[in-house]
Structure to design on (353 residues):
């Protein structure tokens, strides 16, 4: 890597931009199939138009999954274009989950804009999310080959795990205690499963055998856990100007994220005080909880840090990053593709949003 760019940020950003550029036309074509007003609602969610239907260039997300799908095809010896259906499909599933998650979590902001349910109402958020999932299946099957059928099975399994993870995440919000192992399982489902699918789906479409696709999925799964660990850190200590979310956003939603569960599992006065506060929080109604002021959330964040939850999660992100890269060690793939997969993994663990 370039010594002036030790984490390969330039290479990673180029990969993300390539993913957006190659997948965007096919993604727009798929969304255009939706009946009105759903196609406009989806276009708003993707940042293509504003709330009044005017074209805009809003942030459409990091595009990590499309980038992975294209690299996956290249890892199998196919061209990046072979991975486009997989890139579009995983991006549609990802955004199906975001539409529903924002509604379930009551999030009013995503990427510095009002969320779909806030602008267009809960019913449209549900319907458009459902439609994006159906489109994902349609897009992946349109190739009509034995390879696309294999890819569709992997996409369906990953989607089921994603929903499992969201269900676990919601259930944890009102539990007094969640173990670190339970949290990692939830995050492996909610985030790891779809990133794993993205890392393998292009290879499958490109004709790779299951051994290569499975190893790439292992890389993607651990990359997903690293990604989510960083997300958990940003969900508490991230700069709202970068993340597009409120300060202490995960604490406001009573999320049992990795820094929280690691802090509670620790020993010492900070962990004990934090546990007492979270136990009381779990018994409050959402209305009572929303009356908290900034100082109360700041107190919880400080206790999580004092108990070691922040440092443990930072180290967990590094562990998962290392495990992801280790999954690539024995694979026979073009050297340039290996370097690009490494650059993307490095980017994930040092990002600020």
């Amino acid at each position: 890597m370039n010594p002036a760019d030790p984490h390969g940020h330039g290479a990673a950003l180029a990969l993300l931009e390539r993913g957006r550029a190659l997948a965007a036309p096919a993604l727009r074509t798929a969304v255009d199939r939706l009946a009105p007003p759903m196609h406009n609602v989806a276009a708003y969610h993707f940042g293509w138009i504003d709330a009044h239907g005017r074209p805009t260039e809003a942030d459409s997300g990091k595009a990590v999954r499309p980038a992975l799908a294209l690299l996956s095809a290249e890892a199998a010896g196919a061209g990046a274009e072979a991975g486009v259906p997989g890139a579009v499909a995983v991006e549609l599933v990802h955004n199906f989950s975001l539409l529903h998650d924002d509604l379930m979590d009551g999030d009013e902001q995503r990427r510095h804009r009002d969320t779909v349910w806030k602008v267009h109402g809960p019913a449209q958020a549900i319907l458009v999310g459902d439609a994006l999932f159906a489109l994902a299946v349609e897009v992946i099957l349109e190739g009509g080959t034995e390879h696309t059928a294999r890819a569709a099975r992997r996409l369906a399994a990953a989607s089921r795990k994603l929903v499992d993870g969201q269900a676990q995440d919601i259930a944890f919000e009102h539990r007094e205690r969640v173990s670190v192992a339970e949290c990692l399982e939830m995050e492996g489902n909610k985030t790891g499963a779809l990133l794993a699918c993205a890392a393998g789906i292009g290879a499958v479409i490109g004709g790779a055998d299951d051994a290569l696709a499975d190893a790439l999925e292992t890389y993607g799964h651990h990359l997903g856990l690293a990604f989510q660990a960083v997300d958990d850190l940003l969900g508490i200590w991230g700069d709202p100007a970068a993340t597009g979310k409120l300060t202490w956003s995960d604490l406001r939603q009573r999320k049992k994220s990795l820094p929280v569960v690691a802090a509670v599992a620790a020993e010492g006065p900070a962990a004990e005080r934090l546990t007492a506060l979270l136990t009381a929080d779990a018994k409050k109604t959402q209305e009572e909880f929303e009356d908290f002021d900034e100082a109360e959330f700041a107190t919880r964040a400080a206790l999580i840090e004092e108990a070691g939850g922040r440092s443990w999660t930072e180290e967990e992100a590094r562990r998962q990053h290392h495990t992801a890269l280790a999954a690539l060690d024995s694979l026979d793939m073009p050297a340039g593709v290996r370097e690009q997969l490494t650059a993307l993994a490095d980017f994930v663990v040092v990002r600020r949003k």
